[in-house]
Design brief:
alpha/beta, Rossmann fold, 6-stranded parallel beta sheet, two-stranded antiparallel ribbon, Carboxylesterase_BioH, AB_hydrolase_fold, hydrolase, Alpha/beta hydrolase
Length: 287
């Protein structure tokens, strides 16, 4: 089931791609993660545009255009798999006339690495990226952060919201209570349950969609950014992903830890420091 404005949202994505193509600039594609919308990248897009890139902030399939619409039609988030979302972004990137740089957060960071493994990006930044097959650490904090979804098997087919307390733990543990509430009210939306179940079972399923080609010749330079206090994707997971990506002999792989930052590091008061870290790497690495 699609929301009333899902077609308009897809048209918005295509309009951004047309603008990027018309600009002649290198596109910068941003991939959001669970419980967020493309609007979570709006400030980043402005920074990258000022730096000379053509920003593109696509939605996941059927993403509502606004948080208000998402709250009114939570059912549109249900039934989205990692493979479906990854292919959606790859198809959109295929409409770009220039090879983009790609930045993703959380499950968007996983999608970013899938895109890079298909040689569709010239440089990539994965921020607190969800794990893929072969990434083995499973810290207790990650299990607790995923419990609102994984705690009920029926959530596989559902759209699942977070309560404020759950959002506070999984996203906003490194900011004040007041800022956490503001972030929750401004950005949080329901999310499909299926990707979390897929990630949880990835190392048990040889046919999983949650896999990344870490050795692809055309992968391009990759930076992984980790928030020091992230409960959802702690350093153990980010560093294990980094070590897997080090198997790539064709392009540089780097990792940096942002001190004192949680999973909300792309949207909280310190977002600009993270954006500048990503932008510095991309400007150094992109052709």
């Amino acid at each position: 089931m699609s929301s009333p404005d899902s077609a308009a949202s897809y048209a918005r994505d295509l309009a951004q791609i047309e603008r990027a193509n018309a600009s002649g600039r290198t596109p910068a594609v941003f991939v959001h993660g669970l419980w967020l919308l493309p609007t979570s990248w709006d400030r980043w897009a402005a920074v990258f545009e000022e730096a000379g890139f053509a920003p593109v902030t696509p939605g996941w399939p059927d993403d509502p255009a606004t948080v208000e619409e998402a709250q009114a039609h939570p059912e549109v988030f249900a039934g989205k798999s990692v493979g479906q979302v990854a292919q959606h972004f790859c198809d959109l990137i295929g409409k770009l006339e220039r090879k983009p740089v790609v930045v993703g957060h959380s499950f968007g960071g996983l999608i970013t690495q899938i895109i890079a493994g298909r040689a569709l990006s010239q440089a990539s930044v994965a921020i607190d990226p969800a794990p893929f097959r072969g990434v083995l650490p499973l810290p207790l904090s990650s299990l607790r952060a995923a419990r609102p979804v994984l705690g009920n098997p029926a959530n596989f087919h559902r759209a699942v919201p977070l309560t404020f307390e759950q959002f506070r733990y999984s996203f906003a543990n490194a900011v004040s209570e007041e800022e956490a509430r503001e972030l929750y009210d401004t950005f949080a939306v329901p999310t499909p349950g299926e990707p979390l179940f897929q990630a949880a079972a990835a190392n048990l399923n040889p046919w999983t969609e949650v896999k990344v080609d870490t050795t692809a010749e055309g992968r391009g330079p990759l930076l992984i950014i980790s928030g020091e206090k992230d409960n959802t994707v702690p350093w153990a997971i980010a560093n294990a992903s980094y070590k897997k990506q080090l198997h790539n002999e064709h392009a540089v792989t780097e990792i940096v830890e942002m001190p004192g930052r949680g999973h909300a590091l792309t949207i909280d008061h310190g977002w600009r420091e993270v954006a500048d870290t990503a932008l510095t790497f991309i400007k150094r690495s992109a052709r």
